[in-house]
Amino acid sequence: MRWIAVLLLFVPGIAYSNDWDSFSEPGAIAIMRHALAPGTGDPANFEIGDCATQRNLNERGREQARAIGAALQERGINFDAVLSSQWCRTLETAELLNVGLVSEAPSLNSFFGDYSTRDSQTIQTRNLIAETSGRLMLVTHQVNIFALTGQTTRSGEVLIIRSTADDVEVLGSIMIQP
After folding, report:
1. Is the pLDDT at 9 greater than 90, yes or no?
2. Cβ(65)–Cβ(96) under 8 Å?
3. pTM of the full structure
């Protein structure tokens, strides 16, 4: 019986991390790594606002973002604000979730190519969380999530977190395979 559960971990479209109840915790918000966008980093000619110069979602990534959004909607999980990095793959992920109007938040931009902004962006993101009322969905990058939570994420993984006095607490995670 255990081997069946292990096999299900690798079936596309099956949620294999499902801490949905974490959303009912007081102060719970979602922070998500963009959906599947094959590769690492961005090309040398990267420009914000020009998707042709960036690493982007592939069709599996688009399907993954839609599936995550549908799963959130099926469970009645709503967001008062959806904030995204300005990278095309995060904006597209946020739009495809279809869980609210998407706004750009520069503090969620990747610092993978320049770690000198890591600390200031992480502080700005903590402030953004503290200053925004209601339930938030943040769509960003692995490096930003790790800096904020100390936890790595897979493409499309959603961490459910809440702000504490001087940090954030990870309450759970949701992962739907691409």
Report:
1. no
2. yes
3. 0.89
